[in-house]
Amino acid sequence: MKITFKFLSFTVFSLAAFMACSSDDSTSQDDDEAVTELHAAFAAFNSDATTIYLDGSNVVIETTGLPNHESVYWGVGNALYRDEPTVQVTPSIMSSNNNATTITVDATPNLSGSTVATQLNTIGIAVSGASIFNDQEGGGALDQAAGSLDWTGAHIGPGVYHYHLEPKAFTDDDENLVGILLDGVFLYGRKCNSTGTYPTDLDASGGHTTTTQYTIGDEEYHYHIINELYSNTGSYIAFAGPYQGY
Ligand SMILES: [Zn+2]
Ligand SMILES: [Zn+2]
Question: Which range is the signal sequence, renumbered to this chain (predicted)?
């Protein structure tokens, strides 16, 4: 089934390239997302932080990295500061830290290649505008740094403010969009819009191909936060990889 889907996607894309004026999209699923308009899911991103646009067959996401939710990392006095006395905060606060990032992803993820491991640093941009990181901290296990994670599974440093865990500020045991990863595949919460509950057919990356709330009935490959508690954090890893869309 997977090979068939990939072949169909490639065929549809090729047809779309040669038949740009075709108005019949009743049976295809990729006509609208190739290169002519942004995927509908990008409308969910924080427009105060992000600038998102097409560049050929790529999507560019520029972000200030400043999220539209509370955190202890905003620092005392900021309107979005949240007092989190149990968090072992790192020295940096949002206003004195450079959180800006730009990523460029394929508008149409290539699902036919080999999987690719995630790396340290930004692995995606969340709908809040802040970065998503994997399950490592400075080359070691994340649980060693878990004490510095705020209420929404994020911290600063070194580098940009970033989420390691399920970002409860905008997805908490639900089907909400989390963000887009570097391979161009969208990441959703622990539940799937196609069934309203936890998916049972996920691959090793937490991915599967179903409809989502942003695909108007079409099936599309996407990731979920895998519904397994991580170590001593009492929460869920946002994304550990590997990427399937490179
Ligand atoms: Zn980190
Ligand atoms: Zn799903």
Answer: 1-23
Distance, in Å, from the CA atom of 130 to the CA atom of 126, rounded to the nearest integer, reads: 6
**Tell me: the pLDDT tens digits for 14-49?**
444 444 444 444 444 444 445 689 999 999 999 999
Nearest ligand by distance to the CA of 197: 2
User: Distance, CA 99 to ligand 1 centroid (Å)?
Assistant: 13
Q: Which residues surround ligand 1, an ion (CB under 5 A)?
A: 137
Amino acid at 211: T
Residues of the chain short of pLDDT 50, as ranges, are 1-33
Contact 73, 156 (CB under 8 A): yes
Question: What are the beta bridge partners of residue 181?
Answer: 124
CA of 144 to the centre of ligand 2 (A): 31
Q: Which ligand is nearest to the CA of 73?
A: 1
The reported pLDDT for the residue numbered 143 is 85
**From ligand 1's centre to the CA of 160, what distance in Å?**
9
In the chain, where are the structural domains located? Answer: 1-28, 32-236
C-alpha to C-alpha distance for 61 and 88, rounded to whole angstroms: 31
pLDDT at 158: 80
Structure confidence at residue 190 (pLDDT): 98
Q: Are strands 131-132 and 124-126 parallel, antiparallel or unpaired?
A: antiparallel
Q: What are phi and psi for residue 177, nearest 5 degrees?
A: -70, 135
Instruction: Say which ligand is closest to the CA of 198.
Output: 2
3-state helix, strand, coil in the chain (%, to 5): 15, 25, 60
What are the tens digits of pLDDT across the range 115-151? 999 999 999 999 999 999 999 998 788 988 899 999 9
